[in-house]
Amino acid sequence: MSDSGIIQSPLKNEIWIAAENLVSIEPLKRDQALDFLKEEGIFNSSPLAAYLLATRTTDEDLEVRYHSVQILGELLDIEDSPGMCLTDSALKHVHGFFAQIGKDQMIRLLEVGEVYLAAENALLNIFKISSCAGNILSGIVNDRKIPASIRQQAIFFGGRAGFLELILVFQNLIQRIEKSREKVGRNLSEKLLKEEGAIYSSAVVALGNLISGSKTEG
Fold it and tell me: In whole angstroms, what is the distance from residue 216 CA to residue 201 CA?
């Protein structure tokens, strides 16, 4: 297939149907479309298909979301999957999508990481191509209205992806928790204490990773 898009394929009709099914109201059809387009190599070369794949990484259905993340993450993994990489035009469209994602979409990606440990590398590949990922993760880390488990995911991936802008965020978070622990008469439930401890530990580890990485780069 040429780099111009789906219509150049000899399987035009089946491919168009599959592309349409990517936005079907039925999760099963969306999931099946992912398999078909992956097997035909359409995501690699079609900018439209690659963009639609990117949109499915924040799908309402968690399984479809995970499936999409795995496929896209593999396509973005140049070192481990050199033959699976996207064309420049397809990659440009994927970049464009992730340059405009917001907090809610980022939370959906983090939910994938929370439930599916196997999605870790794929999510890292995705976060690394998003120009706004670091800032959005920072906002999630500091938002106490967001579930602690998701904030932990934001901390973990922020540290693993090497977003140096999060160093100060993690330092402030650690200091805030340490000062809070020093308060006399502090009364937190066992659940909140456990969540605070988990976030604190995650932040310490992530901060160490970022500081170590910045020294290596320097």
Answer: 23
* Whether 143 and 93 share a structural domain: no
Task: Give pTM, 2 decimals.
Answer: 0.88
CA distance 157 to 152: 9
Chain CA centroid to CA 122, Å: 8
Instruction: Please tell me the distance from the alpha carbon of residue 126 to that of residue 196, in angstroms, as a whole number.
Output: 28
Q: Which two tokens stand for residue 202?
A: 């995650």
User: Are the C-beta atoms of 48 and 20 separated by less than 8 Å?
Assistant: no
Q: Which domain holds residue 136?
A: 132-218
Of 11-25, 127-141, 148-162, give the lowest mean pLDDT range.
11-25
Q: Which of 128, 150, 168 is the last residue of a domain?
A: 128
Distance CA 200, CA 106 (A): 21
